[in-house]
Design brief:
Strand order of the largest sheet: 3-2-1-4-5-6-7
Number of strands: 13
Structural class: alpha/beta
Largest sheet: 7 strands, parallel
Helix content: 40-55%
Number of helices: 16
Strand content: 15-25%
Low-confidence stretches: none
Distance between the termini: 17 Å
């Protein structure tokens, strides 16, 4: 028999990771040929990459204008391949600004769309759930409260659990990681995760580095900068300060988080990874001013950090936009480094977050649902 063609797409690092694991799980359950947009992980999982997600990676609303030519090229490429291959399903992973429009065009080609990792429209622009209802035959949710929220708006939604649960663990102990990096395991370690997109790095690194300079004036401390997948050291070098020693590591994010007394983490998937590693953190985020002004009109939640939204209360400090200053960030960091009790309280909150994320096996449950749809 001829394998069933499936388009699978992810537009950023976390989506590439989730979609790669789903691709691997699907191929053990059905005879499928997968093609679409993604990164190195999806390519390694056997997906034929028609467009690399690095071409369309962006942050915010206003920045879309700068990426429009690239977005249009990728759009045409994916739709052209879909028209030629006639996939039965399209599995679109988060990245709503692009995927909602792609889903509309694919539906016109009679492709059935599945949303893998439904967007967090409950937090902002909730009316866009109507677009999911009209353009997708199934929505797979990674947070428990999302299933009811989407179903109330007419989406055939299923809670699968979070794909990271059961798959996040440090490979080395603090002592082993410190020895490998030339660090002193008996001295405080602060891990920095400035983001996976070039825009995030540009917005965050100057403030983070100035805060690190202030922190080291108050105490003896060791800084570790963990590069996200796809980020090269050359992207970071322009932001480093000669008087702030920095240990830069690649492919060691979980070890760096697990070894840290405290981490400074860009808002997003990395905060969930830190929570799963029981890693105390300060969450930071900054958008371009115009994007931030638009976002303030659209956001429907009182908090920004995903771990706080999941907990339903402020478990970790979050410094966003004007609150993200070197002095404020250094003050928040020193307060936690000075207080084991404050870090212990934060860990109790992170335990609540882990409990709400559901059991392991989210990707396998998603693959089972999709395989069942293929048999229908």
């Amino acid at each position: 028999m001829v394998p069933t063609q499936i388009l699978i797409s992810a537009g950023e690092a976390s989506g590439d990771m989730y979609a790669a694991r789903l691709a691997t799980a699907l191929r053990t359950r059905a005879d499928v040929r997968l093609f679409g947009m993604g990164g190195t992980r999806m390519r390694d999982a056997g997906v034929e990459i028609i467009a690399d997600c690095s071409e369309v990676s962006l942050v915010g609303i206003v920045e879309i204008a700068k990426k429009y030519p690239a977005l249009k090229r990728v759009w045409k490429r994916l739709l052209g391949e879909a028209a030629r291959r006639k996939p039965r399903f399209a599995i679109l992973t988060d990245f709503p600004g692009f995927h909602l429009r792609l889903a509309r065009a694919l539906k016109r080609q009679h492709v059935k769309n599945i949303y893998f990792v439904c967007p967090q429209f409950w937090a902002w622009r909730p009316w866009r759930a109507n677009l999911v209802r009209r353009r997708f035959v199934r929505g797979l949710c990674i947070f428990p409260f999302e299933e009811g929220w989407y179903r109330a708006r007419g989406v055939k939604a299923d809670f699968i659990g979070h794909p990271l649960v059961g798959n996040v663990a440090a490979k080395r102990t603090r002592a082993e990681f410190a020895a490998a990096c030339g660090l002193d395991a008996d001295q405080p370690i602060v891990t920095l995760l400035p983001g996976s997109r070039s825009g995030e790095i540009a917005h965050h690194m100057p403030t983070i580095m100035q805060a690190c300079r202030l922190i080291q004036k108050q105490r003896r401390v060791q800084f570790v900068l963990a590069l996200a997948p796809g980020v090269k050291q050359l992207q970071i070098v322009p932001f480093l300060l000669p008087d702030v020693p920095m240990h830069v590591v690649e492919d060691a994010t979980y070890d760096a988080l697990g070894a840290a007394d405290l981490s400074i983490v860009s808002s997003g998937t990395a905060t969930v990874e830190a929570a799963l590693l029981d890693a105390p953190m300060i969450v930071v985020y900054r958008l371009a001013p115009l994007t931030a002004a638009i976002a303030r009109l659209l956001v429907r939640t009182p908090m920004f950090a995903m771990v706080n939204l999941i907990a339903g209360r402020r478990v970790v400090p979050e410094l966003v936009q004007k609150d993200l200053t070197p002095a404020r960030l250094a003050s928040e960091a020193n307060r936690r480094l000075d207080s084991p009790e404050a870090r212990a309280e934060m860990r109790r909150g992170l335990a609540e977050v882990r409990e709400k994320l559901g059991p392991p096996g989210a990707v396998e449950r998603a693959a089972d649902l999709i395989a069942e749809m293929l048999r229908e």
